[in-house]
Amino acid sequence: MTQTLRYQSGFGNDFATEALPEALPVGQSNPKKPAYGLYTEELNGTAFTAPRGSNRRSWTYRIRPSAVHEPFKPLASGLLRSAPFNEVPAPPNQLRWRPLPIPTTPTDFVAGLVTIGGNGDPALQTGAAVHLYAANTSMVDRFFYDADGELLLVPERGALLVRTELGVLHVAPGEICVVPRGVKFLVELPDGVARGYVCENYGQHFRLPELGPIGTNGLANSRDFLTPVAAFEERAGDFRVVAKFQGNLWEAKIDHSPLDIVAWHGTCAPYKYDLTLFNCINTVTYDHPDPSIFCVLASPSAIPGTANIEFALIPDRWSVANSTFRPPPFHRNVASEFVGLVKGSYLGKGDSFAPGCASLHNCMSGHGPDKDAFDRGSAADDSPQYLANTLTVIFETQLVIRPTRYALETEQLEHDYYKHWQGLGKNFRR
Predict the structure, then answer these.
(1) Does the annotation count 415 as an active-site position?
(2) Alpha-carbon radius of gyration of the chain
(3) Would you say the pTM of this structure is higher than 0.90?
(4) Domain that holds residue 307
(5) Residue 240 and residue 197 share a domain
(6) Residue 56 in contact with residue 262, Cβ under 8 Å?
(7) Could you tell me if 194 and 305 lie in one domain?
(8) In sequence order, what are the residues at sequence separation of 6 or more whose Cβ sits closer than 8 angstroms to the Cβ of residue 390?
(9) Terminal C-alpha separation, the chain
(10) 209 upstream amide cis, omega within 30 of 0
(11) Of 215, 240, 275, which residue constitutes the final position of a domain?
C-alpha cells in the first residue's frame, strides 16, 4: 500500500499526480497500454460540454476498473434520508437542536449519518440535504460513494482521515473537505470519536464565489485549497462498497480495495480548506453588511444571483462599525439558513448554543439576537471590538429546508427555542 499526506495547492486546477514513476501517461490520456498494466478510467463530474472554467473531469489509471464488483443490493438507510423531503409538513417555526451524542455502540461515519432536512431532487440534480454525523469507529473494509451529490464535511469534534480514490485528506476541526459526486472513500477516526456537519449538494458543484466589487482579493483564496496527490491501495479481501443512489443506500461485495488509482490528472478531485485562512470583508463605517460577505463556496442555481446552496462561515474578526447595532439585526430572508457551531460561541445565540448544536431558520421565519445580546449591542460603545474564539458555519439555500421526521421528533430538538425571543418587550415611546 502506498499513501501520502502531501497536497497540491489551488482550486479547480488541472492537476497531474502519480504514486509510481511514469504511471501517468504524457501527451495522451487513453493510451492502448498504460504503464504497470493499469486500466484507464475517466471520471466525469460535469456534463461533457460544460464550459471549460466549470468543467470537472479527471483521467485515472487504476489497478482494476470500477465496474469490477458484484451486484448492488438494498441496504438499510438508518436515519439517512434524501429528497423528496415529505415525511412531515415543514413548519415555519425557528428550530434548534442540541449536539448529537457520541454513539455507545460501534458506529462508523456512514452508519452515524443523521439527516436534518433538505430540498430539491437528486434525480433532477437540484437542491441539497443537511446531515449530522457522530461516530466512534473507523470504516474498515467498507467504502462509500454518493451518486446523488458532492459531500462537504465540516468536523466539529475529532479529526477525519478521509482516504479517497484520488488521495488522502486529513481534516481537523476548523477545516472542511469536499468529496466529489461518485468518488469512493472511507473515513478513519484518528481521535477515536468524531462529530460534525455535512452538506450534500445535489446541484452544480461548489465553486469560489465571484468577488464583484470586492475586486481581486478577499474571502477564500484559490491557493489555500489543497488537493491530495495520488495514493493507492493494492489489497485483496472481502470488502463492501456502499452507494447512495437516488436517495437509497445500496451495498455490493468487492474482492479488492477500490482505492487503487495509481495516477490521475484532471479537475475532478477532493479537496480541503483551512477555515482560518478565510479573509473576512466587513464594514469600516456603519451598518451591518449582508452575510454573503462570509461566503466560502457557492453552488449556483439556474436563476442568476441565487444559490442552490452556499457554504459560509463567521470566524474571528474585528467589528468597527460606527453608531451601529453590531450583532446580526432581526431579519427575515427569502433564503433558508442552517447554522452550526464548530467552536466557541456565536454572537446573538446565547450560551446554550454550544459547539455541535444546530439551528434552522426557514424562508421568512423571523430571527435574530436574544434579549441579552440585544441589550449588549444596544448599549455598546463605538470602540473597535475583536470577536474571538468563534467559528460558525452556515448552509444557506434559496429553497426551504424541509425537516425530516427525526429532526422534529428527536430528543435533541429544543422545544423551548421560541423563548429565545420572548424577553424582547415593548420599548416604544412617543
Answers:
(1) no
(2) 22
(3) yes
(4) 277-416
(5) yes
(6) no
(7) no
(8) 314, 315, 316, 341, 343, 344, 345, 346, 347
(9) 77
(10) no
(11) 275
Instruction: Kindly state whether residue 62 falls inside one of the protein's structural domains.
Output: no
Spot the catalytic one: 131, 288, 331, 420: 288
How many domains, the chain? Answer: 2
pLDDT (tens digit, 0 to 9) for every residue of the chain, 430 residues total? 344 478 999 998 999 999 999 999 998 999 999 999 999 999 999 999 999 888 999 999 999 999 999 999 999 999 999 999 999 999 999 999 999 999 999 999 999 999 999 999 999 999 999 999 999 999 999 999 999 999 999 999 999 999 999 999 999 999 999 999 999 999 999 999 999 999 999 999 999 999 988 998 899 999 999 999 999 999 999 999 999 999 999 999 999 999 999 999 999 999 999 999 999 999 999 998 888 999 999 999 988 888 999 999 999 999 999 999 998 899 999 999 999 999 998 766 666 789 999 999 999 999 999 888 899 899 999 999 999 999 999 999 999 999 999 999 999 999 999 998 999 999 999 9
Q: Are residues 213 and 343 in the same domain?
A: no
- Specify the DSSP class assigned to residue 105: S
Q: Is 11 helix (H, G, I), strand (E, B) or coil?
A: coil
